[in-house]
Description:
Helices cover 33% and strands 22% of the residues.
Amino acid sequence: xxxxxxxxxxxxxxxxxxxxxxxxxxxxxxxxxxxxxxxxxxxxxxxxxxxxxxxxxxxxxxxxxxxxxxxxxxxxxxxxxxxxxxxxxxxxxxxxxxxxxxxxxxxxxxxxxxxxxxxxxxxxxxxxxxxxxxxxxxxxxxxxxxxxxxxxxxxxxxxxxxxxxxxxxxxxxxxxxxxxxxxxxxxxxxxxxxxxxxxxxxxxxxxxxxxxxxxxxxxxxxxxxxxxxxxxxxxxxxxxxxxxxxxxxxxxxxxxxxxxxxxxxxxxxxxxxxxxxxxxxxxxxxxxxxxxxxxxxxxxxxxxxxxxxxxxxxxxxxxxxxxxxxxxxxxxxxxxxxxxxxxxxxxxxxxxxxxxxxxxxxxxxxxxxxxxxxxxxxxxxxxxxx
Length: 386
């Protein structure tokens, strides 16, 4: 059995497990002891069986197509329990702003420098925010499965590589339908402030990077940043927008990403309307894509057992004509089935559609499997190949 080492960058506001915060055994279900907005940055290495990874990536499903990313995530979650974790050490005064500490040592700067190096070597970078009921090993496993799936070469551009950066928040990771959902909802809201703070750090890093490039006459890399939020991770993003707006001058949020993917979003069905909680998400990206599934059982649980309004991840936008024209809505219901009804972004044709967006294919490109649904030019159904 030949093992392969899988590497992943991460940011988290979870509390570390163990006595050494820079070399923790893992991360738990509580917020960081330094505050709910405190972020740790680092890298993690997971050893896994190369043959089993290939088996999952090559396996086909009758309806979903090639690539069983959901099963791969489950396998890698088990491997992640023995992960080698390195958090970037920090040295700063928590009572003083980062900009007022020129000698401060920040984990965010170390992460951004590593990410910049990846992009200079030709890789796009995708930030991944997981959803409800996800433990630290499960978050790592899902992020690694996403990274591996996005780098498969079955109909995608073999020259387009993607590196995933995980943002993991203290989701309970316990299957208690009522108690843990309510807890995760509160923690997701608070975590939105943390990731909003992280996005602002990224904004400042990019501004400084561009300034140095102009001053030194050196070119910037030609790669892109992307964001994918799954399930309640979209609620995290929703709360991050308010945080960013509060600390962003002018009337527009900074455009940080090329693509934002809202996968099975556990938010209200009117969230993308102009006055909705995600109504300004398009300001952060060149294009936003919403994926939903009418058979998503997790969305029904959110609707009927938690007293939430209709979810965006079940039937899409309540009034799609009110969505900004940078937002594409994709109905995956004709493809999705079985145990992947909620994590379908990892699998088959849907994962391939995401990769086509990373390659900058137009929404109506014939290499996609989309057909227009009705008269609107940004509302689609994803179909299996004939």
